[in-house]
Amino acid sequence: MNKLFRVSLLLAAVLTLGSSMAFADEQENKAQDPAVTDKGLAISALINMSEYLRSLDTFTLQGNVDIDEVLANGQKIQLSRSVLIKADPPSGLWAKTSSMYSDQEFFFDGKTFTITTPDLGYYASFDAPATIGKVIVKARDKYNVEVPLSDLFFWRDNIDAVADIDEAIIVGVDLIDGISCNQFAFREKDIDWQIWIQRGDTPLPLKLVITSKEEKSQPQYVVVLKWNTAPALSDQIYTFTPADSDHKINFKIAEATK
Hints:
Elements: H1 2-6, H2 21-31, H3 39-54, E1 59-70, E2 76-88, E3 92-98, E4 103-108, E5 112-117, E6 122-127, H4 132-143, H5 151-156, E7 167-176, E8 179-187, E9 191-198, E10 205-212, E11 220-228, E12 247-248
């Protein structure tokens, strides 16, 4: 499932309707026909989306996630969790994941990255590089820690995420929580994925489905997103302050980096 998490939010996929009515009409006409394929248009849309995301000074993001886990006998079990993110790029991040089984919180204040399990009272920290994107890479590659919805921040750092796309189609127009979206479907070597993008002047991704092709049962990762692009945030939320009862532990170096 690591591949799913690494691409848990490939947020650059978007249909930017553009400033001219002619361009908007062209996009809408294509979106009505699921058979239309235009990889060039889709790739251009991904780049436009990344530019929009980089224009956001601060934001909060709430996601409801469903993940398929495959048992030894091949049966798929769906697990659910919620994700909440508060971000002040390039160097402020707080995130929380919650499920019936555990909660985790992630803190990054431009100097230190910390992950904690509040219900258990344990935390671990490392000296961090200066940006969210670089922190995510270090946490993943050195310590095998996946920051939730991490690909969102890769796009802000201009990390290429379109090179692996083999095919792209415009599926059509759909509603996510009552909001009109354009739906895309993409194919890569190991995954198929779909994304629903809000139409209009705020082309935010509102839903993502990732299907793994590495396993016969093709497990999926599904997330539905709600955004606030103008929140009031405090710098203090990005710095972790342990309670007296908390216990510090050390990160384990990932096997691949030894």
